[in-house]
Design goal:
By secondary structure, the chain is mainly beta. The protein has 1 helix and 4 strands. GO terms for molecular function: structural constituent of ribosome.
């Protein structure tokens, strides 16, 4: 599954897990993506869209 928003292009970011002894191991923060039906050029298409774009109204949902 693609971990990139089809509207804004937001993808995963990276950081560290920190244990009690403060040893750092790399980890990945994935974007909160939802698979929804979106209208693209008048036809409904399934796409992965981040919740930030959904909340901002950047896409029109297909019913």
């Amino acid at each position: 599954m693609s971990k990139v928003c089809s509207v804004c292009g937001k993808g995963p970011s990276f950081g560290n897990n920190r244990s009690h002894s403060m040893v750092a191991t790399r980890r990945r923060f994935d974007a909160n993506l939802q698979k929804i039906r979106v209208l693209v050029k008048g036809s409904p298409v399934r796409a992965y869209v981040c919740t930030r774009c959904l909340k901002a109204g950047k896409v029109t949902k297909a019913i």
